[in-house]
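Regression check, T5A case 255:
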Amino acid sequence: MNQAERPEGQEFRGAPQQDPAALSHAGQERSAGAVTPPGRFVVLEGIDGCGKTTQLERLRQWLPTSGLMPPGARLLTSREPGGTPLGQALRELLLHPPAGAAPCSDAELLLYAADRAQHVAQVIRPALEAGDWVLCDRFSGSTAAYQGYGRGLPLERIAALEGFATGGLEPDLTLWLELPLEESLRRRGGRAADRIEASGHDFLERVAAGFATLARQRSWQRVDARQSSEMVTQECQAALRCHAAAGAVQGRADG
Ligand code: T5A
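Current build output:
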């Protein structure tokens, strides 16, 4: 997706929600021991071309009027790499490096971690602490899929680095847009591949298989991305409603 086409860090205010209790226990699904700011952090994951950008834009338009967000909460949309000014510079280095400047696998991992550390510190955590919602195109799952399963870097090393970069912050909900690799390649058509996309078919197959493994291990919400974009949106909306409803039930049980 062209940088100029993507609205970065846009904010939208939520409409009055139908059930204020539905979101009163934000952060319940983050890992035990992690600091849980009051906002909501929703991430879209999947292979290149699975439709994340398309769905991010559709959900950006829908969420503020969905009744799911608390009154006054803002919706912020972002992406990785590139959710901050530093991140945009890192994104260029990662995806379109000058001749001779392509990072080795370890450097690539560290650059994605640097992008994420800045993104969490400057954008995501402040928004969540203010009670706002963040909808993000890719997060830690992408590093495990691409640098772990794709490049073959040790997953334990990646997990340790992630903990450092994010301070333990994890998404409340991850929507995994599952699409067969061949279909994603077809959808991307003649578009020029960036450095990661150009890493070869075997690499992309390992990444796709890695996403499937991570989705099982991390209880991500699977969305069938082979459907029309309208149907995919409806599945994402249903998952978000379900997530909010589960929070409401949990809240009543705790209360
Ligand atoms: N990366 C990222 C790492 O290696 N490690 C990390 O830690 C992180 C965070 C980012 C690259 O960096 C790598 C992964 C990536 O290779 P990017 O440009 O942000 O680069 O790449 P993508 O996230 O893959 O973005 P894309 O724009 O390529 O793919 P999207 O956003 O998933 O797909 P989208 O919405 O642009 O759709 C692609 C095409 O399909 C059509 C769209 O119109 C578009 O033409 N489409 C559909 N067609 C039919 N049916 C549908 N349901 C459709 N939905 C969309």
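Comparison notes: DSSP finds eight helices and six strands in the chain. The helical segments are 52-62, 85-95, 105-129, 140-150, 155-166, 181-188, 201-217, 229-254. No diff flagged against the previous build.
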